[in-house]
Amino acid sequence: MTNADDPLAVALFSEMFMADQLARARLSKALPKGMELSHFSVLNHLARSSAERSPAQLAQVFHVTRGAMSNTLAKLELAGHVHIRPDWDDARRKFVAISPSGRSARDAALQSIAPILSRVVQEIGADRVRSALPVIRELRRELEAANEG
């Protein structure tokens, strides 16, 4: 059997891709008007880290191009959800921080999607979700390592 014929790998990735599509579609519909999933993801990351990040660091974290991240950050800055400042030591670099408005927007978005997330965990069972998390994390790490190499 060649790698292309591995039914376990094909089934795993097929399920992951379909779950990703369904989750994105469902959560996107539930987000507050004007909020995109990419906006929420960046705001959530900044709120949880509570530290400034460069656009390049954010692009790396989310595995998107710098151009895509710049586009997302421009929209968030226009909405007043992030503050973008120059690096005082290197004018070519910038730093991004979440604003109070961004925290409020992130909290509102989280409130709108939390029932969906909770319902899924409840339906599957908290213990089963807890037991799946280490496997999903390891899968993510493997994919990140393969992406870097």
Structure explained in plain terms:
By secondary structure, this protein is mainly alpha-helical. It has helices spanning 7-30, 37-49, 55-62, 66-78, 100-124, 126-148; strands spanning 82-86, 94-98. The protein has one domain (33-148): Arc Repressor Mutant, subunit A, CATH 1.10.10. It contains six helices and two strands, in the order H-H-H-H-E-E-H-H. Helix 2 (37-49) packs across helix 5 (100-124) and helix 3 (55-62) packs across helix 4.
Structure, briefly:
With 149 residues, this protein is mostly helical. It has helices at 7-30, 37-49, 55-62, 66-78, 100-124, 126-148, and strands at 82-86, 94-98.
Which features would summarize this protein structure in a list?
6 helices; 7% strand; two-stranded antiparallel sheet; 2 strands; mainly alpha; 149 residues; Arc Repressor Mutant, subunit A
Please state roughly what percent of the residues sit in beta strands, choosing from under 5%, 5-15%, 15-25%, 25-35%, 35-45% or over 45%. 5-15%
The Rg value, from CA coordinates, equals 18 Å
Biggest sheet overview = 2 strands, antiparallel
What is the topology, as strand order, of the major beta sheet? 1-2
Number of helices: 6
Would you give the CATH topology? Arc Repressor Mutant, subunit A
Number of domains as seen in the coordinates: 1
Q: Helix content range of the residues, please?
A: over 70%
Show the helix and strand layout.
Elements: H1 7-30, H2 37-49, H3 55-62, H4 66-78, E1 82-86, E2 94-98, H5 100-124, H6 126-148
Antiparallel strand pairs: 1-2
